[in-house]
């Protein structure tokens, strides 16, 4: 593997790590239908705004989210909605894993 390929894999891993938290996954899912303000996101994911702001900053730095300010309100949206395809794929993996486990347990 070349040095540039290694760097690209590191960069991809950083994006995945930025999404790898239950609150962050919930935020990404909440943004599935479009832009939301922080107050709506906080209520939807059950987090305090101060805690949520740290998660939003991580995802923004990683390139997952865009933000805009309108007066005192800050609104967030997905920068690349294809991240939702990845999250949906993870759900499919979990379903397949569950089916395989259930099949094994059914034989016990």
Could you describe the 3D structure shown?
The structure is a single chain. With 108 residues, the protein is α+β, with helices and mostly antiparallel strands. Helix content is 66%, strand content 13%. It has a single domain (3-106), classed as Arc Repressor Mutant, subunit A (Orthogonal Bundle), CATH 1.10.10.10. The chain has 5 helices and 3 strands, in the order ααβααββα. A hairpin with a 2-residue loop joins strand 2 (65-70) and strand 3 (73-78). It is globular, with a radius of gyration of 17 Å.
Topology:
Layout: H1 3-19, H2 22-30, E1 36-37, H3 38-45, H4 49-61, E2 65-70, E3 73-78, H5 83-106
Antiparallel strand pairs: 1-3, 2-3
Indicate the structural class. alpha+beta
Number of self-contained structural domains: 1
Low-confidence residue ranges? none
- Give the helix level as a range of percent: 55-70%
> What CATH architecture label applies?
Orthogonal Bundle
The count of strands amounts to 3
Look at the structure and name the CATH superfamily: Winged helix-like DNA-binding domain superfamily/Winged helix DNA-binding domain
Number of helices: 5
Strand order of the largest sheet: 1-3-2
Q: Looking at the chains present, what oligomeric state does this protein adopt? A: single chain
Which fold name is given in CATH as the topology? Arc Repressor Mutant, subunit A
| Binned strand content | 5-15%
Overall pLDDT, averaged? 94
Q: Rg from C-alpha positions?
A: 17 Å
SSE arrangement, N to C: HHEHHEEH
Largest sheet: 3 strands, antiparallel
Ends distance: 44 Å
Question: What features would you highlight for this structure?
Answer:
Arc Repressor Mutant, subunit A, alpha+beta, three-stranded antiparallel sheet
